[in-house]
Design brief:
With 501 residues, the chain is of the alpha+beta class. It folds into 3 domains: 189 residues, 2-Layer Sandwich (Beta-Lactamase), CATH 3.30.450.20; 114 residues, PAS domain (Beta-Lactamase, 2-Layer Sandwich); 159 residues, Alpha-Beta Plaits, CATH 3.30.70.270. It contains 14 helices and 17 strands. A 5-stranded antiparallel beta sheet has the order 2-1-5-4-3. Strands 7-6-10-9-8 form a 5-stranded antiparallel beta sheet, sandwiched between helices. Strands 12-13-11-16-17 form a 5-stranded mixed beta sheet, sandwiched between helices. Strand 16, helix 14 and strand 17 form a beta-alpha-beta unit. The longest helix has 60 residues.
């Protein structure tokens, strides 16, 4: 019995070592998740909510619920989004996606930015602001992606686990062989020969080793390693070919990045692969690259420095395809500056361009013209045939206006039936000629629906700069005053602003 206890003691020590190893594994994994990804996740959610609020502002300003719903529809494929809702300044819900909770009680006194990690998800309440005025609020809920295990952390976890398993297996084999030798030398009664129990630990270790490549494949990421001496990939996982369509051996060629990385992003990628500008042990870089089918993909490179012994350090990490997320960001950025119905720039963007032109005019004594165009028949078409037909009428009118002007002129949809036009380098006489030409062009066009022909007609208000205003607010006010005067006699007319309009 004492000898049996002595044989069991080393095994218990090994078991304790194994328990400590896996305890450290769990602690390390949790620490990395909280410290590295929680902050990144919340930052991304805040940026996303800011872009969304900017995109919603023009449509909310004119109470265009259809446009608000169209913008929310673009978010349906965002798996990180749990819900989204749009409220006006009276806290009335105008559009929603999913099932949003009630608004926060502490916002009763007015709108302000709020975010809170509640029940495993990030809730963001962001005011929608246009020209300094709060129009409403967008409420967004994001699933708790920060608590998910990232591909890089998964690989690290498996590596630590395999290391602990390997050490455990070696220790068990040593203990078993030691005990076996003791049994041979000790004066004990003969027993029947038996096979040494070394196959089970070895089989477990081999099985776990075989699962690692499969795990990388299932996560759809590429594990890579590069030599910072030349910035060249020296190894990539088998999933590299599936990501871009290039064989793994082609990734290892010296000019791979030069041939396939987007030229604008190539310097940044080269700096990362050579370790230039890296002040921390790890880094993250988003860049564009062309696949074998000439598709431009967005990849995220996660990397860190890895000691490689006498040969020096190497860089290694993971590549992930983030094209879907980048496409959503680009759509939101586009909607922040454009009218979703016509594709023209929105009023906010138009006012920025007007201010720029006014600043140019003050500096170089240049002149220009602001036109406000109100379509006479648009409301009648929408009320008579429905909003979809009215929207088609507006899109055709916008195209006619755009086709009739110079490339340097700026056309915008302000909302409802009103369009803004900025004519660069024009005098008062030219402004009158252009206004007449636009009215004749529109009256010569026809909108057809169910065999019925509906003419295009409009009223135009004209204001000149810098003669009648040197800031956007004053100039827009005067053009609007001229437009109201033009609408008094009837339709298909224009008026130039004069004092007393």
């Amino acid at each position: 019995m004492p000898k049996a206890r002595a044989a069991i003691l080393p095994i218990l020590v090994v078991a304790i070592i194994q328990a400590l190893t896996y305890g450290l594994l769990i602690w390390n994994d949790a620490r990395l998740i909280k410290a590295r990804y929680s902050e990144l996740w919340q930052s991304a959610a805040q940026e996303h909510s800011t872009l969304l609020a900017q995109a919603l502002a023009p449509s909310l300003a004119v109470n265009n619920r259809g446009a608000l719903l169209d913008i929310l529809e673009l978010l349906k494929n965002n798996h990180a989004l749990s819900y989204a809702a749009i409220f006006n300044s009276r806290r009335e819900m105008l559009a929603s996606l999913g099932t949003p909770p009630p608004l926060a009680q502490d916002l009763q006194g007015g709108f302000r930015y709020r975010d809170a990690l509640d029940d495993g998800q990030l809730a963001v309440e962001k005011p929608i602001v246009l020209a300094g005025h709060i129009l409403g609020l967008v409420q967004i809920g994001y699933a708790a992606k920060a608590t998910d295990r990232s591909p890089q952390q998964t690989v690290q976890t498996i590596a630590i686990a395999l290391t602990g398993l390997l050490l455990t297996s070696i220790a068990i084999l040593v203990v078993i062989r030691t005990n076996r030798g003791s049994e041979v030398l000790a004066p004990v009664h003969p027993v029947a020969p038996r096979e040494a129990p070394v196959s089970a630990p070895a089989a477990i270790l081999d099985q776990a080793s075989r699962r690692l490549p499969g795990l990388l494949e299932s996560t759809k990421v590429v594990a890579w390693e590069a030599d910072p001496a030349n910035g060249q990939f020296c190894s990539v996982s088998a999933s590299a070919e599936r990501l871009l369509g290039y064989p793994a051996k082609e990734w290892l060629e010296p000019d791979f990045c030069k041939q396939h990385v987007h030229p604008d992003d190539l310097p940044s990628v080269r700096n990362r692969l050579t370790g230039k500008g890296i002040t921390t042990d790890s880094f993250s870089l988003d860049f564009r690259i062309f696949s074998s089918g000439d598709d431009c993909l967005w990849l995220r490179m996660l990397g860190c420095t890895q000691p490689a012994g006498p040969q020096g350090n190497r860089l290694g990490g993971l590549l992930l395809n983030i094209s879907g997320g980048k496409l959503n960001e680009q759509r939101l950025a586009y909607l922040a500056d454009h009218d979703p119905l016509t594709g023209l720039i929105n009023r906010r963007c138009f006012e920025e361009k007007l201010e720029e032109q006014l600043a140019y005019s003050r500096r170089y004594s240049a002149s220009g013209t602001l036109l406000l165009v109100d379509l006479d028949q648009a409301k009648h078409v929408s009320d008579t045939y429905g909003h979809p037909i009215g929207d088609r009428y507006l899109r055709q009118a916008a195209q006619h206006l755009r086709d009739s002007l110079r490339e340097t002129d700026v056309v915008s949809r302000f909302g409802d039936n009103v369009f803004g036009i900025l004519l660069i380098h024009t005098l008062s006489g030219q402004a009158i000629l252009v206004s007449n030409a636009l009215l004749k062009m529109l009256s010569a066009q026809e909108f057809t629906h169910d065999g019925r022909r509906i003419p295009f007609s409009a009223c135009i208000g004209v204001a000149l700069f810098p003669k009648q205003g040197d800031n956007a607010s004053d100039l827009l006010s005067k053009a609007d005053s001229a437009l109201r005067t033009a609408k008094q006699p009837g339709s298909n007319t224009y008026r130039l602003f004069t004092e007393g309009n």
